[in-house]
Design a protein that fits this description.
The chain has about 400 residues and is of the alpha/beta class. It folds into 2 domains: about 230 residues, Type I PLP-dependent aspartate aminotransferase-like (Major domain) (Aspartate Aminotransferase, domain 2); about 110 residues, Aspartate Aminotransferase, domain 1, CATH 3.90.1150.10. About 35% of the residues lie in helices and about 15% in strands. It contains 13 helices and 13 strands. A 7-stranded mixed beta sheet has the order 1-9-8-5-4-2-3, sandwiched between helices. β2, α4 and β3 form a beta-alpha-beta unit. The radius of gyration is 22 Å and the shape is globular.
């Protein structure tokens, strides 16, 4: 039997200072912003400094700061400029903030199935969701673990379809020599409270395509041509700018990103070593040519061996102050009311009223792999402040819970 921890441990949390690297660098930059009196990025220096530093860190030509990860997706979709009724293939397991921007642009979300171990879409599942009306593909790198981008890009390039990468959870993860988020046409990042770097709320979009960069820049700025000889509002767009205060915090966070990510990887690898071979659970599946940066640490729980599956495991871990998330999300996003009842603009059901037959068939029985993946996954909390003692404690608690639930 695994030895029980001697006492309950309080783990660092990414929801407060115990699990975040916020400190003197961010405070110094914030003081500079406040003392300047310039809080808008259209006039200040920090927004531009952040964008330049982010582009350099990720090795891309263009990076733009924006108001949130949801805004980043909206900006990316606006850049590819779908017509109402065009389709965008996306994942069945994602946040609503990555889906409603599609509806606001008049596009139909077409959901691809996922791998049951990684919860990521695959080239094969994307191919099954494509049609003659597909305008773009959105791949979401869940939990810090990149999708199979080599295969996905080969498929997309053969079809001439742009790929948007949702890298909200995948800062500095690599596929081969390239960072996730820099492989497709556009990469989207989130700076929300629990991400690898944070401003509370905020986002980034990146691209190497000059034409897409132009549309992205404009969409963030109400389509006003800042810097143009005769600027105008060229098309319908929003104000999605970040403030100088947020940019200052983000710049301080960016300077610490490398070390934060490396500690997440190191401690996650320790946990994997300690849990490998534990009957009834599997540790994360990572592709040979990719690196996992562990926004969260996910276990696969075999409910044929573990009584009560991931839900029962989570209950026992909660008793030890480990607040895990069985299933990750309660239900796939397409099962939410907005999709099931087509609740969009007034009573119009736009853009679903423009969908081809079968494109918006959001019945749960169409997605058996999604159901299986969510049933089996147990999402453990993770952040850059974890040390070996925290990991040892988690490992002991997981092993004890597993042993007590084995059938």
């Amino acid at each position: 039997m695994t030895a029980q921890p001697e006492k309950i441990m309080n783990l660092p949390s990414d929801q407060d200072s115990t699990g975040r690297t916020l400190g003197d660098a961010e405070l110094g930059y914030l003081r500079e912003v406040i003392e300047s009196g310039t809080l808008t990025t259209t006039k200040g220096r920090f927004g531009k400094a952040l964008e330049g530093a982010f582009a350099e860190k990720f090795g891309v030509k263009h990076a733009f700061a924006c108001a949130s990860g949801s805004a980043a997706i909206h900006i990316a979709v606006a850049a590819v400029n779908p017509n109402p009724g065009d389709e965008i293939v996306t994942t069945s397991i994602t946040d609503m903030g990555a889906l409603t921007p599609l509806l606001y642009r008049g596009a139909i979300p077409v959901f691809a199935e996922v791998d049951t171990k990684t919860l990521n879409v695959t080239a094969r599942s994307i191919e099954n969701a494509l049609s003659e009306r597909t305008k773009a593909i959105i791949v979401t790198h869940l939990f810090g673990n990149p999708c199979e981008m080599d295969e996905i890009m080969e498929l997309a390039n053969d079809r001439g379809i742009p790929v948007i990468e949702d890298s909200a959870q995948t800062f500095l993860a690599k596929v081969g020599d390239d960072y996730a988020g820099t492989i497709g046409a556009i990469g989207c990042f989130s700076l929300q409270q629990g991400k690898h770097m944070t401003t509370g709320e905020g986002g980034m979009v990146v691209t190497n395509d000059d034409a897409l960069a132009r549309r992205m820049f404009l969409y963030i700025n109400k389509a006003w041509g800042y810097g143009d000889k005769n600027p105008d509002h060229y098309f319908m767009a929003l104000n999605y700018r970040l403030s100088e205060l947020q940019a200052a915090v983000a710049l301080g966070q960016l300077e610490k990103l490398e070390s934060s990510v490396q500690n997440r990887i190191r401690t996650a690898n320790v946990l994997t070593d300690m849990l490998n071979g534990t009957d009834g659970i599997e540790t994360p599946k990572v592709a040979e040519n990719a690196s996992h940066v562990y926004w969260k640490y996910c276990l696969t729980v075999d409910d044929s061996k573990i009584q009560g599956g991931s839900v029962a495991m989570a209950g026992l871990l909660k008793e030890k102050n480990i607040f895990s998330a069985p299933r990750y999300i309660v239900k796939p996003a397409f099962m939410c009311q907005v999709f099931q009842e087509k609740n969009t603009l007034g009573d119009s059901q736009f853009p679903f009223n423009l969908a081809r037959e079968g494109a918006a068939d959001y019945r749960i029985e169409n997605f058996p792999a999604t159901v299986k993946a969510l049933n089996d996954v147990l999402v453990l909390p993770w952040n850059e402040k974890y040390n070996d003692e925290h990991v040892k404690y988690i490992a002991q608690c997981v092993k004890t819970a597993t042993e007590s639930l084995l059938k």
